[in-house]
Amino acid sequence: MPPLPLHIIDGNGFLHRAYHARQKAAGGSAPMGGVQAFGSMLAKLTREHQVKHGVVVFDVPGPTWRHERWAGYKAQRKAPDADLVAQMPRFAPMARAHGWPTSAAPGFEGDDLVAAMVDWWLAHEPGGRVVIHASDKDLLQLVTDQVQMADPVRGRTFGAADVQAFLGVPPAQVTDLLAYQGDEIDGVPGVPGVGKVTALQWCQQYPTPADCIAANPRVRGKHPLATLDGVAQLRMSHELVRLRRDAPIRFEAFTPATAPATLEAPHQAEIWRLGTVPTEDGRPWQFEHDQRPCWDRPGWTGRGREDYEERAAILETDAALSRAEAEAQAYAIVRASFR
């Protein structure tokens, strides 16, 4: 049998999706709604893909080597919502509670770690495969015959031919395309006067940026690469969009760096703790969707073992959990209420 694939999750991409989906559904009144939804997304992905080996990769707050290289990098981005900032410390522990190892490295972006993880796994498992779960087009540069990107937003999986059809270039030229046209969202300047159409034409005409620089093509009557500044800007843009495969791989919690990234069994009590907040009167558990303790919610009739089925039904409906997840969490809550 071929080796089981390594599933790599773009943790920051998933947590933003989870936060905005749950906040919208809850009308902005779910203090830990993003963390709850994030956990549910991980459980669903694990179940649907039957994941045995995986890792969730996160960004580390603070500047990275790209900010040091270019002061305008991501300078246009708005500050995250205060509610999201309050939940940020719980996302990585929630991933680990669901049995997923996590990884992050100061000074590097999560995308760099994804690239390093791909190389690490393929070296560790010759003939192995990798599935990257993300929506970031920068990660398409990693796609090969052994590496796919499953995009949950677009609902499609990208192989090499899919990247060519989607962007008009093969994975090996994704960095060239992004460097030529720049990226306004990330603050990558690109080549002055060059947009998507010209960038695609250059990729088709010139095998490498060095070939493009040597050809000195004209754009709208000008030669943007005729000056040292223009060439330096292109080279810097290419450096910013190229993923660093030398990022340090550091697994947190369950998995040592020398062993395969193997999932562990979910820790149900920890999952519930991370997705809840204490009640004002000090009782240990609170279900967030209507901000009342679980035993004060409609449908709760007592504090005994026999009531956990009713609580599981509430969790299954309100938190969009599977029946097994809802029953496991309900049992953890009932046990905690007697401590």
- Give me the CATH superfamily of the largest domain: 5'-nuclease
Q: Taking strands numbered 1, 2, ... along the chain, how are they ordered across the largest sheet?
A: 6-5-4-1-2-3-7
Overall shape: it is elongated
CATH architecture of the largest domain, by name, is 3-Layer(aba) Sandwich
Largest sheet descriptor:
7 strands, mixed
The radius of gyration computed from the alpha-carbon positions, rounded to a whole number of angstroms, is 23 Å
Structural class by secondary-structure content: alpha/beta
Q: Tally of extended strands?
A: 7
Low-confidence stretches: 278-298
The proportion of strand residues reads 5-15%
> Number of helical runs?
13
State the order of secondary-structure elements, H for helix, E for strand: EHHEHHEHEEEHHHHHEHHH
What is the CATH C level class of the largest domain, in words?
A: Alpha Beta
Helix content, binned percent: 40-55%
CATH fold descriptor of the largest domain: Rossmann fold
Count of discrete structural domains: 3
- What is the first-to-last residue Cα distance? 48 Å
Average pLDDT confidence is 82
